[in-house]
Amino acid sequence: MALQFTDSNFDTEVLKSDKLTMVDFWAEWCGPCKAIGPVVEELSKAYEGKANIGKMDVDANSNVPMQFGIRSIPTILFFKGGQLVDKTVGAVPKASIEAILQKHL
């Protein structure tokens, strides 16, 4: 199951993680976010143990999305070693997300 990232656990779970971490910024009311939700779940299972994959609800958490300039959702950010290493915006195909994961593993 995809991890749940929040303003309070972001530093520990994402920035201080020793694994590649993918964060899907989404909201309940966002149609394209709902479209890629199942893809995020599939990837979280497929990459379990290799990468941390999770979601952050932008309505419930405003600090981190503001910190990273999230202006449209869905936006997926990829972090490695505490640094932002890649990003994708919009409802992109699973193959595109997986290609980014593979590139940074």
Verbal overview:
This protein has 105 residues and is an alpha/beta fold. It is 36% helix and 28% strand. The protein is globular and about 30 Å long. The mean pLDDT is 97.
Order of helices and strands: EHEHEHEEH
* Mean pLDDT level: 97
Number of helices: 4
Uncertain stretches: none
- Percentage of helical residues? 25-40%
User: Strand order within the widest sheet?
Assistant: 1-3-2-4-5
Question: How does the major sheet shape up?
Answer: 5 strands, mixed
Query: How many E strands?
Result: 5
Q: Using only CA atoms, what is the Rg?
A: 12 Å
Query: What is the CA–CA distance across the termini?
Result: 20 Å
Please state the oligomeric state of the protein chains shown.
single chain
Content-based structural category? alpha/beta
The global form is: globular
Provide the β-strand percentage band. Answer: 25-35%
